[in-house]
Batch of 3 targets.
Target 1
Amino acid sequence: MRLYDGLIKFAKKNTCNNDEEAKRMIMLLRVLMCCVFLYLLGGSILCVVTQIRYGLVMNSALILLLAGMFTASYYLSKYKTVVIFNLGMTLCITLNIWLYGWSSGVQNFLLLLILVYYFASYDNLHKKIGFSVIIFIVYMALYLNFVGRENPDISLFERYLIRGENIFVMIFCLSLVSYIFSFASHRMEGELIAYNVYMTERASQDALTGLYNRGKVMEILHDLSNKGELFSICICDIDFFKKVNDNYGHCAGDKVLQSLAETFKALMPDNEGYVARWGGEEFFLIFLGLSGEEALEKLFFIQDKIRESSVDYEGQKIKINLTYGLTEYSHTKPLDDNIKEADHKLYCGKKKGRDIVVF
């Protein structure tokens, strides 16, 4: 695992491309080059053991070529790096088939080139199809020239060993390519989901208080109305809120709204109901599972708590009161009529002197 992490960090260093997708592709190509280097190194050791000098010379030349490709990747664009990688790998595959024979399975690495190219060019289907056709032609050409040919200097055991090595390296490289791009895809998908959740919450929240906004509470009311559940609604308004802004400033008014929102959230847990900012200094309360009489008792408790509290602002304590219009939701009336009834009761409370609950 440490070796893998080291390869990744080394491959990421000094990439000249600014695009994240290009950086990821070039990093992947460098890691694949490191894998091919280890593969060629193993082939060189085998050639030393079997005393196949021409194989050792060939592998040494390919290692030098690979070193040049690796170095060039720090200066070339993503597209050029992919091109030299494919050309270099095609040459490497061809020479290794010539050295080890068709039965070694080296030709299967051509499939890896298709996978790499497809990930490297997302937006050009014609080029992808064309590249696949080219790989097919190369594969058939190699098949017609090398099928049935085996190197007499390599024993049957060594052929099995080489085939096993090729299968292992091929599976490892395919897994590596799939992991890197699936990880990136899953990460972007996760970020997109998180962003959508964030934007949905922002769209349903009041920016100042963090409570639900009017649009969200209308959705909740429609849902509750469609389910036919028992609930009561209340519209409440801060009394003489304009005086707070005039006497203490608008920042103090914002502080009052935020403090009141926190009080409502503490007194109205999610499992008991909903609190929303209806607009300006008005708030909307939904009491779940409560009749009008039961909601009235709850509302008296909330009223007392707000009367006992105050808002600290720049060393001053601001006392606030509210007027409440409460009604039990009637499923025999349209939604708008229920809201108008609560609003009318709020208006009556204002006329009667404020700081009262009208039910």
Note: The two ends are 69 Å apart (CA to CA).
Target 2
Amino acid sequence: MTPPPLVATYTDTFCMSLDEKGRVAIPAEWRSEIFETYLYAFPAEGCLRVYPASWLSRLQEEWRFLGEDDPRREHLRALYAVAQLIQWDRDKQSRFMIKERLRKHAGLRKHVVMCGRGDHFEIWAAETWKEQRGMPLVEELLKQLHQSKSGVS
């Protein structure tokens, strides 16, 4: 069986706000990209990574033939243990709630940055994003991509 295709591409960076209940809106530019009702959030270093459900379905399909003792199967189980299933209700504000334990992990307070990463997006505390990541220059990113593609360090 062929894994389901990924149905979203996340690009750009957006400054958003969490409401008092820990909800954040999907940026308007991404709303048409998200055809799925469910997303998965995983804690990562300094942020949360959010993937469409089709991403996890692809992993499950690719790994369903692995033996019970295969370490990759254990990695998938570990992902399930820390993931938050997000049901995205398409209300007028296009919000979803982030569980408190994940907000604490990433240090999310009022202001957050949502950064597209192609097949997923990341949610950063605005202060952390500013300190650790900032806005890289496009020319520098393109140079790094070209160097890694050609094997130049």
Note: Helices lie at 28-31, 53-63, 71-82, 100-106, 126-133, 138-150.
Target 3
Amino acid sequence: MKFEGRVGLVTGASRGIGRATAIAMAREGADVGLNYRSHTDEALEVVEEVERLGRRAVLLQADVSDQDAVEAMVARTTEELGRLDLFVSNAAYSDRELMIDADMDGFRRTIDVSMWGAFYGMRASAQQMVKQGEGGSIVIVSSPHAVLAIPMSMAYNMAKAAIDHMARTASMELAPHSIRVNIVHPGWIDTPGERKFFTEEQLEEGAAALPLKRLGTSEEIAEGITFILSDQASYMTGGHPRPSTAASDSRGGRIGPKASSKRHREALFDTPAPAVRRIGSAAVSAALFPHRPKTQRFRPGARPDEWRCDSKCSSGRPPVPPAGGLFGRRPHLQEEQYQEMWQRAKDDPEDSGANWPGRTWIGSSLSSRSPREHADTKWFTAAS
């Protein structure tokens, strides 16, 4: 067994990923401290399961946002189970609302639990491991929210981004003590916490859009966590595994539920599904800009025949315009007008554009200018 003779501590262990992880650790031979704040009946069920596996369990009710309570929790685990070798920071809290409308008590609560709670637990556990002088292993359960700017989740995004960098920094500071620190981004997992934000129907719709066509399970994530905690991953620290239940970001990493899922966005924003565009590595939602249409943006001052070409050019289709900025008013061209304008510019380089389509555009200040004149100073935008 991976953890024979070792002791672990898991926060948020009464439900979901924390529960599955605590049980998986016990199955691999560890005695386990089980932290929970509420859901006492479910926490007692985890104790029974750990004991059924022949391991010892200590039930630790504490709010991880309370530093004194967390330090007392680590001390009690060490006192009753003899030592501390493994720590999993899993407890989290999140509200979903726009930043400008956010209830600040809930906003601060999210930061206090999801960021400070992770820090307090990691710090107190690392102090005990350093004191023992025999190394140790820590896993911080983070989230794709650390890298994906999901609207209505600002506090949670902030907290998860912070603990990612916290864990990477800790991995450097604790390496001389043979204490490994790693991060896990679970992606979209079938846990009770998801029911706070989504109906069963919405979860099914969202699952169908993921690469594996289903949500991950807590048990699957627990298997990954126990591997990272174990000596099988003894040369891994500062790592950042992202399970394959998540959609890819523009750098090829895994960043969580498919951002283009219509039902998922409607569930998040409680509005008709907006267009989602990628700027750099972040998905930027047009839900924040509901007065603007979904668009393709062209480089200012460029002739249409100078626009970037892709594989479609070889088949005689217009080149793809390069991406532009997000803000400001834009004139608009329908697809057929855009194609005609491109063809005219290609056929006659000297054409002034006086007879191009689209002279009457959005905004009265633009209606007296030709597209060619406007191209010298503004951004073109084609409705998609």
Note: The chain is about 35% helix and 10% strand.
